[in-house]
Amino acid sequence: MLTLGRKPGYFSFLDPFSPGVWLFMLLAYLAVSCILFLVARWAFTLIIISSYTANLAAFLTVQRMDVPIESVDDLADQTAIEYGTIHGGSSMTFFQVKPFGSFPTSGSEQNRVMIFVH
């Protein structure tokens, strides 16, 4: 029953529960917040450490590739890597008919450059 002579106070919403219940709810809220904060920090730290470890392992195991051939001239000047065209292909016809740039065009150099694959 509502009494008409009394105005509700600012904290009248607390009346349905006793102060002990409100205190327990406040402590539970703080405990859950602290636990979530600590778990989030632990998970973040774990992710950062595993990323660092993976990148370090990848960095230490990868071999730096030395690219000795950077242009067609470098390819023509070397003898360690064999190269050529497919027998009967358009590249073979192109190099036989029309020498290109600094490719060797006569004698033994042409035979060394033009290695045909059957």
Task: Write structural notes for this entry.
With about 120 residues, the protein is mainly α. It has two domains: about 15-60; about 70-115, no CATH class. Helices cover about 55% and strands about 5% of the residues. The protein contains four helices and two strands. The protein has helices at about 20-60, 70-75, 90-95, 105-115, and strands at about 85, 115. A two-stranded parallel ribbon has the order 1-2. The longest helix is centred in the middle third of the chain and has 43 residues, at about 20-60. It is rod-shaped, with a radius of gyration of 40 Å. The chain starts with 18 loop residues before the first helix and ends with a strand. Residues about 105-110 have low confidence and may be disordered. This is Glutamate ionotropic receptor kainate type subunit 4. Keywords: Glycoprotein, Ion channel, Ion transport, Ligand-gated ion channel, Membrane, Receptor, Transmembrane, Transmembrane helix, Transport.
Could you say which structural class the secondary elements and strand pairing correspond to? Answer: mainly alpha
Number of helices: 4
Number of strands: 2
- Mean pLDDT comes to 79
Strand order of the largest sheet: 1-2
Which shape, going by the Cα principal axes? Answer: rod-shaped
Helix content: 40-55%
Query: How many domains in all?
Result: 2
| Rg over CA atoms | 40 Å
Estimate what percentage of residues fall within beta strands.
5-15%
Q: Which residues sit in consecutive blocks of at least 5 with pLDDT less than 50?
A: 105-109
Tell me the span between the first and last alpha carbons: 104 Å
Q: What letter string, H or E per element, gives the SSE order?
A: HHEHHE
Largest sheet: 2 strands, parallel
